[in-house]
């Protein structure tokens, strides 16, 4: 496997093993070859106070693993439970595919893939929460 490839925009920041790294003035590409490196794009980061919805709470849990603030082993079962709880709400075929991908990624300890799959649910969650019963 070739590792994780990050494509960074100008001045974009990324957290790698606890160090914040800022890209220069041009787009660039980094290949992360260390399999267990803790990596989080800061543009993907969710502030703890913004983790108020089920999808955002799951994303925040994955973020803690990616940043190295939480051990992947101790987060494994709670993450699987959160994905399962989301599958009780998101029952359409597309959402189920995204949740299946998130689940598979958690099982395979591919946390960046988990983050990507769950982020795809954010617009759907926002639409569901925007609907107010009359």
Give the structure's gist in a few sentences:
With 134 residues, the chain is an alpha+beta fold.
How many strands, which pairing sense, and closed or not: the largest β-sheet?
3 strands, antiparallel
Strand order of the largest sheet: 3-2-5
Tell the overall outline. Answer: globular
Residue share in helices?
A: 40-55%
Poorly predicted runs of 5 or more residues: none
Radius of gyration: 16 Å
N-end to C-end Cα span = 52 Å
How confident overall, as mean pLDDT?
Answer: 91
- Total DSSP helices: 5
Beta fraction: 15-25%
Could you say which structural class the secondary elements and strand pairing correspond to?
Answer: alpha+beta
Succession of helices and strands: EEEEEHHHHH
Count the strands?
5
């Amino acid at each position: 496997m070739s590792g994780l490839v990050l494509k960074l925009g100008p001045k974009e920041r990324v957290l790698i093993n606890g160090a914040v790294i800022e890209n220069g003035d041009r787009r660039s590409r980094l290949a992360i070859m260390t399999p267990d490196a803790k990596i989080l794009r800061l543009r993907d980061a969710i502030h703890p106070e913004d983790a108020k919805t089920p999808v955002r709470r799951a994303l925040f849990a994955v973020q803690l693993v990616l940043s190295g603030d939480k051990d992947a082993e101790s987060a494994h079962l709670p993450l699987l439970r959160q994905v399962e709880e989301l599958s009780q709400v998101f029952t359409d075929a597309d959402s189920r595919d995204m949740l299946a991908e998130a689940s598979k990624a958690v099982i395979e300890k591919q946390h960046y893939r988990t983050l990507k799959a769950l982020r795809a649910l954010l617009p759907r969650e926002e639409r569901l929460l925007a609907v107010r019963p009359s």
